[in-house]
Amino acid sequence: MDKILLTNMQFYGFHGLLPEENKLGQRFNVDLELFLDTRNAGLLDEMEQSIDYSKAYQHVKKIVEGKAKNLIEAVAETIAEDLLTSFHLLQACRVKVIKPDPPIPGHYESVAVEIYREKNHE
């Protein structure tokens, strides 16, 4: 399966369990892999045969910068569900939500959640 990659998208959101996270907010990075057949897009050179990257970005932005959630697992799940229902050519997606500066004592680069979801073919 072909894929479109959107990497290191950066947003500011208010997700987290701690009150200060919900009040002050923090940075979140998101990586996407969008799985679809891009053959027709490549042959016909028509946007209708693919997924518009800017529209996918806007969907993610609205979720990450929108209503606060307790867990980044919930942020990732919401993104995947939204993308799979919004883009008819999308067959599956991998969503990685990264919290670069979580309020956890210790030395590390970030914490992250990565999920893979497929479209239900009912």
Automatic annotation (TrEMBL):
Every Dihydroneopterin aldolase/epimerase domain range? 4-117
Task: Identify the coding gene.
Answer: folB
Q: Which family does it belong to?
A: Belongs to the DHNA family.
TM annotation in the entry: none
Look up the EC number in the record and give it: 4.1.2.25
Alphabetical list of CDD domains matching this protein: DHNA_DHNTPE
Q: Which SUPFAM superfamilies match?
A: Tetrahydrobiopterin biosynthesis enzymes-like
User: Which keywords does this chain's UniProt record carry?
Assistant: Folate biosynthesis, Lyase
Q: Please state what class of enzyme this protein is.
A: lyase
- Catalytic activity from the UniProt record: 7,8-dihydroneopterin = 6-hydroxymethyl-7,8-dihydropterin + glycolaldehyde
Coiled-coil segments on the chain, per record: none
Tell me the domain of life.
Bacteria
Annotated function: Catalyzes the conversion of 7,8-dihydroneopterin to 6-hydroxymethyl-7,8-dihydropterin.
Which pathway or pathways does this protein act in? Answer: Cofactor biosynthesis; tetrahydrofolate biosynthesis; 2-amino-4-hydroxy-6-hydroxymethyl-7,8-dihydropteridine diphosphate from 7,8-dihydroneopterin triphosphate: step 3/4
Q: What is the official name of this protein in its record?
A: 7,8-dihydroneopterin aldolase
Which Gene Ontology MF annotations are present? Answer: dihydroneopterin aldolase activity
